[in-house]
Specification:
By secondary structure, the chain is mainly alpha-helical. It has two domains: about 1-20 and about 110-140, no CATH class; about 25-105. About 55% of the residues lie in helices and about 5% in strands. The longest helix is centred in the N-terminal third of the chain and has 14 residues, at about 25-40. The radius of gyration is 16 Å and the shape is globular.
Length: about 140
């Protein structure tokens, strides 16, 4: 089921969703973000993203080894001739590093962190907090 905020704001053209990686939890965090970008190159970012979150087992405990990340791509039916070298050769590393550095520049110190019209909303929040922030931005107040 699609999140209500996407239906209410993004699909109606009132807001835009931009995802940026914040890979600061060690090597596996970096590899997972890179693999998600490799999946994005095949139009499967969100499917891969969701699979990563379903597969978490703690920080840097082997769940996101490059072998496992490649296996997730196979599970999603990605073109492995493209995906595997992308993951193993760090082809999306610069993208992930740029996202992480951008977040640090804007004060991101943890995840999740959201920016709504430049205003930070930190941590897991109820839908009402997002609705309030988006509505304020749409009214020119945020």
């Amino acid at each position: 089921m699609k999140p209500a905020l996407l239906t209410q704001y993004v699909e109606t053209g009132k807001a835009q969703l931009v995802y940026k990686h914040s890979a600061f939890l060690g090597q596996e965090s970096l590899w997972a973000a890179q693999a998600a970008e490799c999946a994005a190159d095949q139009g499967k970012f969100w499917e891969y993203h969701d699979l990563l979150f379903e597969s978490q087992k703690g920080e840097n405990q082997g769940a996101f080894s490059k072998d496992n990340l490649v296996g997730f791509g196979k599970d999603l039916g990605l073109d492995m001739g493209q995906f595997e070298p992308c993951v193993r050769e760090d082809k999306t590393l610069a993208r992930v590093q740029a996202d992480t550095q951008e977040g640090q520049k804007f004060g991101v110190r943890g995840t999740p962190t959201f920016f709504i019209n430049g205003q930070p909303l930190v941590g897991a929040q109820p839908i009402q907090a997002f609705q309030k922030a988006v509505e304020a931005a749409l009214q020119g107040g945020g």
